[in-house]
Amino acid sequence: MNFFAERRALKPDQIVGLDSSSRAAAKECGHGREPLVILPCLSSPGRATDSPGRLSGPFTSRLRSLLPLFALSALLAPTLPALADTTSNTSLFDAASASFRRAVELAPTNPQASAAAALESAAAFRELADSGIHNHRLQTNLGNAYLVGGDIGRAVLAYRRAESLKPNDPRVQAGLAAARARVGVTIQPSTESRIQSTLLSWRSHISRTTMFAILLSTYIAGWTVAILGAIAPAPCARRRTLGALLGLAALTSGGLLALDDYSLRRSGDAVITASSTTGRTGPGDALYEPSFKDPLRPGIECRILEPRGPWTNIKLADGRETWVSSSSLETINPF
Questions:
Q1: Residue 26: which of 171, 146, 153 has the closest Cα?
Q2: Which of 98, 247, 277, 323 could hold 296 in an S-S bridge, CB 3.0 to 4.6 Å?
Q3: In what order do the strands lie in the sheet with 311-316?
């Protein structure tokens, strides 16, 4: 009897969390759809009959009867490790979701127990992310768990990572706004940062796919108008104006997409995650004085200028620079 193994592995984008904003972020809680795991399926298509002309005999018949077992072993050998990983990820996801629901339920009556359950949920969600699963839903749930647990620095970090994966998601934007509001420090952005934020404000309303469609359609339409103008018997001012407008639209949309890709994919953006970080004028505690009167609070966003061993030179949103311990911050784009 021949056996065949069929397995469908859980895809990374199927591992999603509750996909709901926390009480602090959106003041409502929902439960997301949990993924399904399809276990290996063994089926028997039937028994093959011996063909004339083949070797026969007790040894040959016994060897032939063992061939299906060899084939089954060969089929299952590469799938078993992946199946174990899939089952482990699903169990981890279930545990994280249960802890998060418990944290939300305990929040009105027992804030300390709620924070502990939320951090337990965050640890499980982060383990899923560290295993190689990258999607905005997982990072959003990680941010929700950290926000309920009171770890504001890592909440901002998770929401920023979710934003890099899907900038126009309203849950991501709501969670990020709530986390930034709890940082407790407002750093006025520099002129450069304000200009960049203005140019990228379309991300909250238009997806990258829509913007790319605008680029492609205006580019094709512009070339169509240009070709028609070249073969037309007489020049037309309206046609030239339309072609120039279409070209300008294509150039603008392409430039905005390039700026968006640069801002989201650059590896220099980071978030302070340590509970108390002292910025210094140079890379060292003994020789350099603090740059600011107060330490940098967790959740402050910055840009890495120069990593130097245990110290990193960063630039804040308002343009000021300082040196901090490299272990006090985490990059937004580690993927």
A1: 171
A2: 277
A3: 321-325, 311-316, 301-308, 269-272, 329-331
Write down the H helix ranges in the chain. 23-26, 58-76, 79-106, 111-130, 136-149, 152-165, 170-181, 191-199, 208-231, 237-265
Tell the residue number behind the tokens 């063992």, with chain if given. Answer: 66
Largest CA distance in the chain: 93
Q: Which pLDDT band, with edges at 50, 70 and 90, does 259 fall under?
A: confident
Q: What are phi and psi of 230, to 5 degrees?
A: -70, -30
Q: What is the pTM of this model?
A: 0.65
pLDDT digits (tens, 9 = 90+) for 202-248: 777 787 788 889 999 998 988 888 888 777 766 677 878 888 898 89
Q: Determine contact, residues 106/117, Cβ cutoff 8 Å.
A: yes
| Residue type (1 letter), 295 | P
What phi-psi label fits residue 132: left (phi over 0), alpha (psi between -120 and 50 degrees) or beta? left
Report pLDDT for 242: 86
For 114, half-sphere exposure in the C-beta direction (CA atoms, 13 angstrom radius) is 17
Q: Locate tokens 């103008």: which residue?
A: 229
Written as one letter, the residue type at 116 is A
Nearest to 132 by CA among 99, 92, 159: 92
Q: Where are the beta strands (DSSP E) in 17-82?
A: 38-43
3-state secondary structure of 131: coil
C-beta separation of 88 from 133 below 8 A: no
CB 19 within 8 A of CB 137: yes
Between CA 239 and CA 235 the distance in angstroms is: 8
How many Å apart are CA 112 and CA 330, to the nearest integer? 26
Question: If 0-12 CB within 10 Å is exposed, 13-18 middle and 19+ buried, where does residue 118 land?
Answer: buried
- Bridge partners of 330, per DSSP, are 271
Q: Which residues contact 115 (CB under 8 A, 6 or more apart)?
A: 103, 148, 149, 150
Question: In degrees rounded to 5, what are phi and psi of residue 314?
Answer: -125, 160
Q: How far is the C-alpha of 9 from the C-alpha of 90, rounded, in Å?
A: 11
161 closest CA partner among 182, 146, 183: 146
